[in-house]
Amino acid sequence: LFRSTPEGIRFHCFMKYFSEEMKVAWYQKDSKISSSDRMRIGGTDEYAWLQICEPTERDKGKYKFEIFDAKSSYKRVVDLSGQAFDEAYSEFQRLKQAAFAEKNRGKVVGGLPDVVTIMDGKTLNLTCTVFGNPPPEVSWLKNDRDLELNDHFAVSLDQSTYASLTITGVSSEDSGKYGIYVRNKYGGETVDVTVSVYKHGEEPPEVKQSAPSRPAPAAPAATAEAPKSSPPKPAAQARAAPKPGRPTRK
Q: Strand pairing partners for 192?
């Protein structure tokens, strides 16, 4: 069988009765394939694969997997042409774009705690590192609503990387769930922190973490299987290889 991946198209085959004396080989149109940066070959004693990176029209055609020793040989042929190639190539392009969007979308990459307790009258500074390509826009929320900025609430974004929220002279009214929403054209995420303010002389409260924050991949990372070809001989058996808004981060 073969399937599309963000890198290209991958053939895969599970093997039975494989021994050290046996060898494997991949062929395209009866020409043996050597492993290279574009045509990668790998596997284990139980599993063999061929990865075609950035496939083109010249990669259409029949592919053969062979497992053999001095006495016997077993082959499996798969036809990657016509509709099969068109569908696999289309899915590869979709997965490639989704992977690129996921890699470059706005996200929080560190620094923000899950829970904060602070005595009233103190100043609270929440700081985190954000990433995105292009650089992301950043906004802050309180209890899932946009935070109104004033002398009490101040925000900053330094070098499109270091985001902070400063709450001056905190009081019990400042307790609640705060969030930072980071996004660019490829997507974004919201990361939450629960803040609890206690009075001087009281014991710091035990605060339960709020609901998980919300990462937003630009597209689901699904893969598509190509149609099955004819059943293999006993020595080689192929089988199938082992998701915009503001979703949450676990």
A: 179
Query: Which amino acid, 58?
Result: R
pTM for the full predicted model:
0.70
Q: Positive or negative, the Cα torsion across 229, 234, 236, 238?
A: positive
C-alpha–C-alpha distance, residues 124 and 167, integer Å: 5
Per-residue pLDDT of the chain (250 residues; tens, 9 = 90+): 899 999 999 998 887 766 677 788 999 988 999 999 999 999 887 888 999 999 999 999 999 999 887 778 888 999 999 999 999 999 999 999 999 999 999 999 998 999 999 999 999 999 999 999 999 999 999 999 999 999 999 999 999 999 999 999 999 999 999 999 999 999 999 999 999 999 987 777 776 655 555 555 443 333 333 333 333 343 333 333 333 444 444 3
